[in-house]
């Protein structure tokens, strides 16, 4: 991944050379460039700001240096320009996962009262633009935000962290739950003991205890994260019954014709199932549905196979794809996995680009070492 930073205080970004990002640069995983925005000024004082049109307090960052910087750095199609600003989209783990899929991020760090709006509009005409806020408070400039975003993003890059499992277990990565409490040696410290269950060696009980602790913590500290049974707009996600089989069959055919075309495969079983088969699997798979205006528009199913929560038939009506419904269903079905599940697995068409992108963004990894039907691939994720 290539990372560029435009700042009038490049020294602020020196920590990027330290520790893990520094190592990632040395190993070639990251190609990192910090630029002093003042090199694209032409006056004696290297001016990068001016008073706002229309009056008001503070100074606004001038457009010309940014424009020249974008040209000099050949920012263009395929690149993502990140403007760090308190009026941007709130940064969270989902945004980090999304940015981790990009090949180049260019951080434009604002100072003062912000950057001339035309810089953002211009950037949007040559590249993808994201305006991102670190949180509901005002920093002196965007540099600290750029550092924080960088750290959250680059640790998600394959090969960056030594232990990929620690990535998926931590807070905000597992179905939106906070992390459970952790302990290390000694077993007793100042009369405080490590909970017995962690010493039991019973992995099933330990997993169940941790899940329970994570749910309790989340309920206490972040109840806003605990609404797995509804979409952001409040639309409920409900369990399916056999009576839903006819509508499910219609949705399934619409989705699997698409899948068959994308993968040049006509023998996908889901495409050839009839009503009886759908009724049968609704009985054995936990199936979840979303309706809009009474119409079935999304579904997903899962079942426990040993310790694996096997997820499948993630379907969104073709006219509503690309709006986050698939991701919401995928998050939901992970959040409702029983305590005994230690990982998630799913199968998709090897050429279903949209699905693969969705699953990778959600933390799933391609597993070519695991079996999959002809033309398909298996993806897994630790819980
Ligand atoms: N610049 C100033 N405040 C900021 C914030 N909260 N997030 C991102 N960039 C900023």
What does this structure look like?
The structure is a single chain. By secondary structure, the chain is α/β, with parallel strands linked by helices. The chain has 3 domains: 2-154, SPOUT methyltransferase, trefoil knot domain (Alpha/beta knot, 3-Layer(aba) Sandwich); 179-221, Trp Operon Repressor, Chain A; 237-382, 3-Layer(aba) Sandwich (Aminopeptidase). The protein is 33% helix and 23% strand. The protein contains 12 helices and 16 strands. It has helices at 19-26, 63-72, 93-99, 117-126, 143-154, 164-169, 203-221, 245-263, 269-272, 275-284, 325-335, 353-361, and strands at residues 2-7, 31-36, 49-50, 60-61, 80-90, 104-109, 128-133, 188-189, 192-193, 237-239, 286-292, 295-305, 308-316, 343-349, 365-366, 376-382. The strands form 4 sheets. Strands 10-11-12-13-14-16-15 form a 7-stranded mixed beta sheet, sandwiched between helices. Strands 2-1-6-5-7 form a 5-stranded parallel beta sheet. Helix 2 (63-72) runs parallel beside helix 4 (117-126) and helix 8 crosses helix 10 (275-284). The chain is globular, with a radius of gyration of 24 Å. The two termini are 27 Å apart. 29% of the residues are buried. The structure holds adenine. Adenine (ADE) binds next to strand 5. Residues 84-86, 133-135, 137-139, 141-142, 145 line the site of adenine (ADE).
